[in-house]
Every structure is written in structure tokens, then in C-alpha cells.
């Protein structure tokens, strides 16, 4: 299974790749391995900057929270009418949208 995020202090895939490139360079000190380490680190830094500028990580987290809260509501209210379900979904999607809009005014770094 591929993980891009972690929980419990584990390395992300990007961090693991960077550490592997660093280890390879430390053991060889070759120009080729230094170039690989530089490229991997540059990609990781660029990805992090892009995520901070776009807020994509937060958007993804908000989306997961929204979906989980809707599924929890459905589990807790198995006999809810379609109208009640629709109203609850709409309410939770509006909260998601408001949280995403708030990111537009949040500082980048």
C-alpha cells in the first residue's frame, strides 16, 4: 500500500526517498549521487511550497472530514428520511466550502 501522508511519526514516501538519496550520497560522495539528492530534495521542497500556496493538503483533509462526518451521520441515523439526509449533507458540504474559502485569506507560510 502506498502512503503519501503518515500518522504516528512515520516517514512519508517523499521523505523516505529523500533519505535513501542522502544515504546513497553519504556512502559514495559521488557527483552523480549528489545530483540525485539535489533533484529529490528540490522536488520535495517544490511540492511542499505548492501545497502551502494552494492549500491542497488542507482541502484534502477537510474533504475527508466532510465525508466521514456524513457517513457517521448515516450510521447513527439509519432511518432518516431522504429530506433529512439531504439537509444534513447540504449543511456539512456548506461547512466544507466555508473552510476551503477561509484558506483563501489564510497566510501562505
How many strands appear in the DSSP assignment? 0
What would the principal axes of the Cα set say about the shape? elongated
How many domains, as an integer?
A: 2
Distance between the termini: 31 Å
Order of helices and strands: HHHH
Q: If you compute it from the alpha carbons, what radius of gyration comes out, rounded to the nearest whole angstrom?
A: 21 Å
Mean pLDDT over all positions: 87
Helical fraction equals over 70%
Number of helices: 4
- Characterize the main sheet: none
Strand content: under 5%
Task: Provide structural commentary.
This protein has 109 residues and is mainly α. It has two domains: 11-54; 55-109. Helix content is 76%, strand content 0%. Helix 3 runs antiparallel to helix 4 (82-103). The protein is elongated. The relative contact order is 0.08.
